[in-house]
Design goal:
Largest sheet: 2 strands, antiparallel
Distance between the termini: 137 Å
Helix content: over 70%
Shape: rod-shaped
Order of helices and strands: HHEEHHHHHHH
Number of helices: 9
Strand content: under 5%
Structural class: mainly alpha
Radius of gyration: 57 Å
Number of strands: 2
Strand order of the largest sheet: 1-2
Length: 252
């Protein structure tokens, strides 16, 4: 379909209306009347052209305005969609950051649990690993529960696995006590002698010697018991075990 400009439409109207009156009245009107009629027609055509142009302009303006309104609405819809996507991405980013933070907090907590802790054991500072602490506590709990056979196995495993532990002297001492509770005096003496020889500065050393003397007494080895009691008094004179040793020696 062809399209016409405003100027083209006006020109066509002028030509059409000018041509018809001239042909119709060529033989009826004189020159002045003909010229006046043409001028009148041209005036009417100019008015019609102006009206037509105005209508075309009005339609064009309305069309442009509608186009702008439609474009504006589409733009606002696109902006709303983008805002929604931005909000969604922002939420996802915030959630991801929170998960990452939680992950690092959890990881840090786990690592801290695996790190050795500085604690005081019998007045001395010692670095103790979590697994080491757990193994010692569990073994001692078994002993306190009265399962001396299981306690002996757990304590023996502990001193072999953690020979440098701050709990090693105590574990060795309770190992000797576990054997004594099982009436295995020979094993008890051997275990307590390790306490005296390897950990002579341990607060448990004096008690270990007293237990050794008790085991010798159980085995009817009076000489061994006497010798051990005397050594106990000499090596640890200010200990409570030494006071007990003195009492036993005084009764013999």
């Amino acid at each position: 379909m062809k399209t016409f400009s405003k100027a083209g439409i006006a020109a066509a109207l002028v030509a059409a209306f000018a041509y018809l009156p001239m042909q119709a009245s060529a033989g009826l009107l004189d020159d002045n009347e003909a010229r006046q009629a043409i001028l009148d027609l041209r005036g009417k055509i100019d008015a019609l052209a102006r009206d037509t142009n105005a209508r075309i302009d009005s339609k064009a303006d309305k069309t442009s305005t509608l186009d702008l309104i439609n474009q504006h609405e589409q733009t606002m819809q696109d902006i709303a969609k983008l805002r929604g996507q931005i909000e969604e991405l922002a939420n996802e980013l915030a959630n991801a950051q929170k998960r990452q933070k939680d992950f690092y907090v959890d990881l840090d907590g786990r690592l801290r649990k695996l790190e050795p802790r500085q604690i005081t054991i019998d007045g001395k500072e010692a670095a103790v690993e979590p697994s080491e602490q757990s193994a010692y506590d569990n073994a001692l709990q078994v002993f306190k529960a009265g399962d001396y056979k299981a306690a002996a196995g757990a304590l023996d495993a502990f001193v072999k696995r953690y020979p440098q532990s701050g709990y090693a002297a105590n574990a060795q001492y309770w190992l000797g006590n576990s054997y004594y509770a099982l009436r295995d005096c020979k094993s008890s003496i051997a275990a307590q002698q390790v306490v005296v020889k390897v950990y002579p500065d341990s607060p448990k050393a004096a008690d270990a010697m007293l237990n050794i003397a008790s085991c010798y007494t159980e085995l009817k080895d009076k000489a061994g018991a006497h010798k051990t009691l005397v050594a106990l008094v000499n090596q640890y004179p200010d200990s409570n075990a030494a006071q007990t040793a003195k009492e036993r020696l005084s009764k013999k």
